[in-house]
Amino acid sequence: MSVPQVELKNMTKRFGANLALNNVSLLIRSGTVHALLGENGAGKSTLVKCLVGFYHPDEGHIQVDGREHRLNSPKDADALGIGMVYQHFTLVPSMTVAQNLVVSGARLPAYINWQSELRRLAEVTKKLPFHVPLDVRVSQLSAGEKQKAEIVKQLYLGRKLLILDEPTSVLTPAEADEVLGHVRSLTRAGELSAILISHKFHEVRRFADDVTVLRRGASVRTGAVADLTDDALAEAMIGEPVSKIVQHAPKSPPKSDIILSISDLRVNGDNGLPAVKDLSLEVRAGEIVGIAGVSGNGQLELVEALMGQRDRSGTIAVSGSSFNGTRLEIARLGVYGLPQEPLKNACIDRMSLAENLALRNFDRVPLCRGIAMNYGALAEQAERLVAQFRVKAPSLTASMSTLSGGNVQRAVLARELTQDVRLLVASNPTFGLDFVACEETYRRIVEARNGGAAVLLISEDLDELLGLVDRVLVMSAGRIVHEVSAEGADKRVIGKYMAGMKAA
Amino acid sequence: MSSISGIEPVPSKPLVTAAQLSVALPVLAVLLASAVFAAFVALSGQNPATVFGLIVQGGFGSSFAWQDTLSRAAPLVLVGLAVAIPAQAGLVIIGGEGALVLGGLAGAVVTLPFAGVHALPMQLLMLLAGALIGGLWFGLAGVLRQYRGVNETISSLLLSYIGIAVFHHLTEGMLRDPASLDKPSTHPIDPSHMLPTLPGVGVHAGLAVSLLLAIAAHVVLRYTRWGFALRVVGGSARVARMIGLAVNRWILGASVVAGGMAGIAGAIEVAAVQGTANSSLIVGYGYSGILVAFLARHQPLAIVAVALLIGGMQASASLLQRRLGLPDATMLVFQGLIFVCVLVADAIAQQLRETTRR
C-alpha cells in the first residue's frame, strides 16, 4: 500500500447554530507533514474528527487518491489507513507495549497465540526508526517513550496517514525533537503522511512541509511553511497584526524581603509515593520565580501542598508566618492562586458566576454580616468585577459552566487579583486558553509582580515561562535540580535538566 | 473591547433554565411512574381510575385521612432532610433508617428515670437524645469517608443494618420491658411526657417540630454563609480547600446534623405515637426519606410538599387493601416506580446538560 494523497473538500459542520467548520478544504500531499494551526476552538479537532469518522460533515467530502469516500465510523477511516495519535495516551498502562500492540488489532482471534504474535511484532518494529522496549509495562515508560509507542501502534496497524494532536505537549524539548524527527523522516521516506496539530510555531517550522491556519472554523491561510513568516502565521491565527507575544514589563530589582519560604517540603502523590522530596525554595517580593519541568515531576503536588489541598511535612512560611491554607491565613497573608483548568480547579461549576466571584470573601463584610449573607452586595461586587475584567456571560446568575474558557479565566483573574495579593501561585495558568486570554493572564501576572507581589509560576511551557520570569528553577523527580536567572537561561541546558539527564 | 468581543462569543441562553428543569423533571417522573403504575394495577385486574381515586381519597379525602397523612409526613420531612443536607455537601447518605431507630431508642430510654418530672424539659430531652445518637450514627459514615476513604453511601446503608440489629438486640435484651410479651418493647415512657396534639389539627406536635426544622434548614442553606460554604464543599472539595475551607469539618458537620434530623424523627415517633421503642419504628421511613429528598431535589421546602404526597400515598394503602383487596405492598411498588423514574430523569438531564455544553 503506497501512501495515499488525502484531500478534504469544502467541509462544513454545524453544531446547532454554531458553525464549527465553514467550507474548509485541505490537501495533504503524499509523503508530507501538514501542520494545522489555530487557536482553541478554531475548528482543528472538529476537522480531524471528520477525517477519522467520529463526526460526519454536513457538507463536503473526503477524497483519498482522487476517489471520494464516506467515513461513517472510525472503522472506515481505519480501512483507509487513517489513524490518530491523541494528546493523551491511550495505551493500557498495566500491559506491556507488545500486549498493547497485539490487542489493538481490529480483528482479534478468540485465542491469541502470543508466541507467533510477538515474533511477528518484533519483525515489524525492527524496521522502524522508533525504539521502544516491547516487554516493558507501559506504566514504566517515560512520556516520550509512551508517545513513541502510540506512534508505533499506528504504524503496526498499517496506518498511512497519521493525525498527531499536539503530540509534544507532554514531552521535553529533546523528546519532542526525537519523536517529530522520526515522523518527518518516515514521511520523507515515503512511508507516511501526517497531519500535525500544534500551536508551537517552531515545531511547525522545523517539521512540517505545508501549513493551514484555521480561524473560527474557516481556513484563512494555507501554503508551504517555507513561504510564510511566523508573523504572517500569527496574524492569520488571531486575525490581526501581532504586537508582541508577551509584553515583558521592565524589571525592577526585587526587594529584599522574602515572601514565600519553603523548606524541606515532602509531599506524597496520589499513589502514596513521595512526589516532592525535601524541596526548599524562596520567592521575594516583586519577583516572578518560574518552575520548569515535565508534567508529573511533582509540580502538581507542590502546588496542592502550597494551597493547603494536600498533606505535607516540612515548613511553608509566608511573610515569616507559618502557612497552612486556612481562610484566616489566606486573608491575612494574601495568598492567592491561578490554577490550570480554572473551571475545574478554581470554580464551582454549578454555582453562579456571581457566587464564584465571591468565593474569596463571601464570609466577610459587606457580603456577610454575622452569619447572614447579603446577596445584594454579592451581586454588586460581581457586577463591578465583570465590568472591570470584561467577563462575558449570559448573566450574573448563569452557572459558571455556561461561560467560555477565556471568560472563566477572566472571572478567576478578577476574583484572585482584586484581593490584597502578596503571594500569587500560578500553575499552568494559560493551559487550554486562547490567545487573547493568555495575553491577558500574562499581563495581569506581571502587573501583580510590579505591584510588589511575589509570584511562583509553574509551567510546562518553557517559552511561556522564559518570557515571564525573573528566575527559573527546574524541577525533576520531585526536586529542584537547577536554578538560573532569566537572563542567563539557556533552553537546551534547562531541557536537559528537565529530562533528568543532569543531576543537581 | 471590540477585539475581545469579536473572539469570545457570548453563549446563548439555554432553551430551558435550570430552575424550570428542576421543577419539570420530578413532575414528569411522577407522571411517568403513575402511567406505569396504572398499567401495573390494570394487570392485577383493577381499574386504574378507581385506584387513583382511592389514593386521593385515602390520603387527602377527609379530615381523618389528612390526620393520617400529616402524622406520616412529620417523620418523612425529617428523614428527607437527613438525605438533603448532606447532599448539599456532595454526599449521598441513605442510612436514615438506622439513625431513626437508634434515635427512637435513645428517646425512649432517656426519660425513663425521670417519671413524673415536668413534661416540657423531658420532651426536649427526648428529641435531643434522638438527635445526638442519630448524629453520632451518620457522623460515623462521615468519619469513614473523610479519614478512611470509605464510600459514604455504602457505609451508611450498612451502618443502617447494624443500627437496626443493635436496636433489636437492646429492645429484646437488656432494655426490654418484661411486661411486653408478644412485641418486645422498652419500658413505656411516662404518658404525661408524650408530645401533645396540635390544637385544631389533631396531629401530634412532632409535625410542628419537623416543619420548623425544614424552615430552619431552608434559611440556613439559602441565606447564611454556612449554606454557601457547604455548597462550595459539595461543588468541589479541591476548590473548597483552595479557598481555605476545612472540608473534613464541613462534611462531618453536615453528616452529624443530618443524622440528628433522622434521630429526631425516631424520637418523635416514640414520644408522639408509640410511647416505647419497639419494632413498629422499623417501617421503612428512613428509606422513604431517600425518595422524598430526591423527588424534592434536596430543597427543604420542597421536601415538605413531597413528604405530604408520599405520606398521603402511604396513608391510602390501607384503604386500597380494604376496598380492592390490593396487597399492602402495592404502595411500595408505586414508590419504587417513582424512585426509578426520578433517577432515570436525573440521568437523562445530566446527559442533556453535557451534550449541550459540547
Structural class of chain A: alpha/beta
Percent of residues in β-strands of chain B:
under 5%
- Termini separation of chain B comes to 26 Å
What's the number of domains of chain A?
Answer: 2
CATH class category label of chain B: Mainly Alpha
CATH superfamily placement of the largest domain in chain A? P-loop containing nucleotide triphosphate hydrolases
Q: Give the fraction of residues assigned to helices of chain B.
A: over 70%
Summed over residues and divided by their number, the pLDDT of chain B gives a mean of 89
Average pLDDT metric of chain A: 85
Could you say how many structural domains of chain B there are in total? 1
> What is the CATH T-level topology of chain B?
ABC transporter involved in vitamin B12 uptake, BtuC
User: What proportion of the residues of chain A is helical, as a percent range?
Assistant: 25-40%
Secondary-structure-based class of chain B equals mainly alpha
CATH architecture of the largest domain in chain A: 3-Layer(aba) Sandwich
Kindly provide the name of the CATH class of the largest domain in chain A: Alpha Beta
Largest interface: A-B, 49 and 35 residues
Biggest β-sheet of chain A: count, sense, barrel? 6 strands, mixed
